[in-house]
Design goal:
The protein is an alpha/beta fold. 33% of the residues lie in helices and 12% in strands. The longest helix has 15 residues, at 70-84. It has four helices and four strands; from the N terminus they run E-H-E-H-E-H-E-H. Strand 2 (31-34), helix 2 (42-49) and strand 3 (54-57) form a beta-alpha-beta unit. It is globular.
């Protein structure tokens, strides 16, 4: 009914729904919004949703961003782009309350630089 009305269906999950992702795609989910993408095998998830759905996500808010490790954060941003860029569908996002998770804006900014293409390597 949503699709018939021209709307998209977004699913947010704080946990790993990998085992039922195909069922969600079959049910019509258009966008998966995960703040902890490290719970998933990007390459596998990308293949499964390719052309069917999109990932909307920041760099992982529990495992990567809180480290304050610029190289790690930027490497993860690159890995996300590589896995989802070609046909997998990817929308980069920021976590809305960085302070609450102990992440400095500068650290999230390192991922933003990669997502926005400021670091062409």
């Amino acid at each position: 009914a949503l699709h018939e009305s021209g709307m998209k269906l977004l699913l947010h999950s704080c946990g790993c729904v990998d085992g039922i992702a195909d069922d969600f795609i079959g049910a019509g989910i258009d966008v998966f919004q995960f703040d902890q993408p490290m719970l998933y095998d990007f390459e596998s998830l990308s293949r499964r949703i390719k052309g069917k759905a999109t990932l909307w996500s920041p760099v992982d808010i529990q495992k990567d961003l809180p480290t304050g490790d610029k190289e790690l954060i930027q490497a993860e941003a690159r890995r996300m782009i590589k896995a989802f860029h070609q046909g997998g569908g990817f929308i980069a996002k920021d976590y809305p309350s960085l302070n609450d998770i102990g992440v400095k804006d500068e650290w999230a900014g390192w991922a933003r630089e990669i997502f926005l293409g400021m670091h062409n390597e």
